[in-house]
Amino acid sequence: MTHTETDPVGRSALRKVAWRLVPFLGLLYFVNYLDRTNIGFAKLTMSEDLGLTETMFGLASGLFFIGYLFFEVPSNLALHRFGARRWIARIMVTWGVVASAMAFVDSAGWLYALRVLLGIAEAGFFPGVLLYLTWWLPRAQRVQLIGAFLVAVPLSSALGAPFSGAVIQYGDGLFGLEGWRVMFLVEGLPAVLLGVVCWFYLTDRPEDARWLTADERGWLARTIAAEGATPGREASPWRAMANLRVVGLGFVYFGVVYGLYAVSFFLPTVVAGFAERFDATYSIFETGAIVAVPFLAGAVTMVLWGRHSDRTGERRWHLAVPAALGGVTIPVALYLDSPFTVMAVITLTAVGICCALPVFWHFPPLFLTGAGAAAGIALINSLGNTAGFAAPYLTGWISDATGSIRPALWLVGIAMLLSAAGALLLSRGRTPVAATAGGRDPVLD
């Protein structure tokens, strides 16, 4: 049993932090991920309007990550310097403006340009929120609560898919725009509004939280400071970025993210392909409802898996097993002989990807702190998110070159299996609960 679980002040403080910060940050990430991936639904009608091939669509999807990757580390260092409240608000307003502007593109070139700008605008949001949560969450409870935040990823697909499909189908002609343009406009504006809310709602550090009692503020500040003072944690941003463990974690994250974006960007296309393979035709809204099912399952299992990892204190296998599940199932899905079995196996893929995500982000703060954590977490996210460019572009290119999406999904499976193998190399030992509550965590020793 951890110290927090036996300390009434600690329990009260964490309960307030969890309810105030996690749902709101999850809402922000919901909108973030939806604006990043809704191009997968726009493709169903946008490709014909703009004359996009599969390769061109894959390039447009992946170009987001070019600007994103170059600005991740500078953005996170700026958040560390200026505070989360100001910097997250700035990020949200700028990405909302660019996301809405995508409603007015009239060529593939303009689509490419705005996808790059969207990546620049969004850069630093995700690693910034993760860094921010390390200022508020003690290590022993971090995976479960980060999992509650990350549930926004599958929920944005589960709820966003039918919503996007409905807007495209039933909003066609609204404001004189095609349905996919209406979708970009409608789904971009909430980021601007929430950015304004951020400025007034977020609190930078526990010491500044007037919504906590003095005892709760003191307990939380002391607990987080004690963990930050653990010997062996890197505080220099330059040494953090040169740390081989950062590079190794970036490699592991690459495989998980490769699977995530391949599924997110191309699952609507896979479902639409059921018409040819199985003579099963669905409307755009029905396609969205079908796409939602794997991500709903992923949302539920992500929370339960993170809770189990925190309760047992085990991290390495809690990362490797779901990554391997995703790697084994995704290429198999398209060799099955009915829409039901294909979606059942893809649901297992989504479960594997979603369960791996919160456990993965337990590792970087174990050996990074301060500005080193800001730079290291951003670099890990950048290295991993090179898969955000590679996955859609290679999937589209291979699909065009071979006339089938199957070889591309075999590549996805290989990437995820390599990620699982990398996770097992993180440590040969089991992390006891006591180690995660304070002191060194042997997972990365």
Automatic annotation (TrEMBL):
InterPro entries: MFS, MFS_dom, MFS_trans_sf. The keyword Acetylation does not apply. The chain crosses the membrane at residues 17-35, 55-75, 87-105, 111-133, 145-170, 182-202, 246-267, 287-305, 317-336, 342-361, 373-395, 407-426. Residues 21-431 form the Major facilitator superfamily (MFS) profile domain. The keyword Amino-acid biosynthesis does not apply. Gene3D superfamilies: MFS general substrate transporter like domains (1.20.1250.20). Keywords: Membrane, Transmembrane, Transmembrane helix, Transport. It is found in: Cell membrane. PANTHER family: PERMEASE-RELATED (PTHR43791), TRANSPORTER, PUTATIVE (AFU_ORTHOLOGUE AFUA_6G08340)-RELATED (PTHR43791:SF36). This is MFS transporter. It comes from Geodermatophilus maliterrae.
